[in-house]
Sequence to fold (182 residues):
Amino acid sequence: IAVLKGESKSVLKSLKREMMVASRLSNFEKAAKIRDQIKALEIVLSNAKIFGDLKSASGEPEDSWQKTQKFLKYLLKTKGKISRIEAYDISNIQGQDAVASMVVLTSGEIDKSQYRKFKMSITGQPDDYAMHQEAIRRRMKHSEWPTPDILLIDGGKGQVSAVYEQVQKTGSSEFKKIPIFG
Fold:
């Protein structure tokens, strides 16, 4: 919570103090665990600095969504506008009670009114690829929903490939142009 409030320096200082105390008390496992937390936090903070260093072409300050959008375009190597991002995740218990969740960010803001949950018709063994395909196929049937600028899929190359294949097979020409990332 302190890091999210912008108090990362005090958190790092506190963790370093805690690590030293653990080390002095010969609690080396705890000290190593804290050291790893410090390293992880430093990595996150170093990546966060990229956002702070971005400036508009005119040198004027940008709002946080402009900065984030600029960073995403760079990171994802895309040139198009980014205003709507849809992210998909599959949840199930051993293949049972499977659902796909669609969460939406609009201009960098979480848009809970746009969240959707798809109850999967696929049953039996868990099949993440087929479930992602079903979710995106069902999503694409809703032309009344705004078209996303980016699709984020929870998973790796296999899940992204499965979604890409489904979009190419059944998607509109507009949907076929959307970058898909995992």
Remarks:
- The first helix runs from residue 8 to 24.
- Confidence is low (pLDDT under 50) at residues 50-54.
